[in-house]
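=== Given protein ===
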Amino acid sequence: MEKATAVNTCLGVLMGRDCIYLDQVKQDALNNLTFTGDINGHLISQHRDEKDWFPYTLTFRRVLAYFACELDTYENLAGMGHLDGSSFDLIEDSTWLKSLPVREDFDKDIYRHYRLFTYDDVYNIIAVSYEFAAEL
């Protein structure tokens, strides 16, 4: 059964709809997907209230697939209320990852399913790893 586990970043757990603001998403030729923007300093579990905003970069490495959807539409699609939970999760035992018909030369076991809630959109990402950096 699928289980969402909050990712603990250098800012701690990121919580709520107003936590992650997105300025830009870029995909490069190496299948890396990079998000840049600002994190609300009042909606994090570490360094809380030290600053109003923390600029961040979040890069997913070796992206196999991703899906983006407008936030309120995603909430209706998923049939769950999630706006007050973690904004960045690892989806364990992912049904989407299990169902992906990957190429024979790909090792599906090295991939992970991540879900990122930004202010406006939700991203589900299948990638090997991620790197998160914030200006403390």
The two ends are 36 Å apart (CA to CA).
